[in-house]
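General statements about sequence and structure are easier to judge against a single worked case. For one protein, we set the task of working out the structure tokens from the amino acid sequence alone. The sequence in question and its structure tokens are set out directly beneath this paragraph.
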Amino acid sequence: MRQYDRVREERYNRFLHGLDRNDVGTNMQQSPLMSDAELQTLIDELTPKIKTNTALATILTIIGFISSTFVRVGVGEFFDMLVLVVFFSMFFSFAFYFGNKAARQKKRLKCIVSNNIVRGVLTDNFELAVYAPGSHIRQSIIEHTKLIQLNWNRISGSDLVEGTYRGVRFSFSDLLLRHETGSGKNRKIVTRFKGQWLICELKKEIPWKICLRERGSDNKRTKSTIETENIEFNQKFHIQAEDPHTAFYVLTPHFMEYIMKARRRANARTFMKFDGRQIHIALHNGRDLFEPYGKKLFVANNIVTLRMQMQWDVKYITGVIDELLYNEKLFNKEE
């Protein structure tokens, strides 16, 4: 076996469903843990810098556009173009500088929080096998499910988590699926999916595939292959089942109520697929988890609060697996 093939096989043996690297992914290597005092000092130092540099980049970009508009009024063509180039070059160069600086600082903050807070929260909840902040579930796995029916040709993601919870092996990551066409000025990018993708490894095989897709513009009028006794569930989800008996065995009244409750709590368009020994659950909610910026930047200066926020982020994973284990006959024991 060639060395490359051997390394590839070892990598796949280590990861259940990873590992695709993100181009801007954070360092996978675990750094030595900081004390809370050291962590607090670094967060207090980085948080205001990120806010300031982001604000400066935004303001300079706006000024650049406004200035370029005003200089075009009543000025000779040559001078107009010259001034326009100067203004654009000056303001947008500074805007790029501060924006790039903020991006680097966000990446550093992400690494710090990932290694010192997120990893600890994950370890508290799971038998953690892998935490790779800059990686995601493999593209081939996502393609194979065909859960996202709209065309996409670009994939990225972060925060690959793999481990065991109450005896159930799972993989989880943030994912961004986009469709890109054209180039240059004609380049067009459309987001098809942004959210979380969870895969649970069952101990009992489901003999027939079952697919649930929350209804949207792409499948609003598509007819399900079966209908359950839950009218609201039928209206919310398009159901494809190879075998009706298996579908009703899986979609118990209790489980359907849980799915409805979970999708409301996650505020996400929900997709699920039962395939052999795997369950794929995709949440299209337009956000990433475990991110120490955005809204969470405002609580980042409080380590206790930030840990609580990250703890909340893992509750969806534990909640889903808890519910799957509720029906032990189906999800926990071989007959």
Remarks:
- The first strand starts at residue 20 and ends at 21.
- The radius of gyration is 24 Å.
- The CA atoms of residues 266 and 285 lie 7 Å apart.
- The chain is about 45% helix and 25% strand.
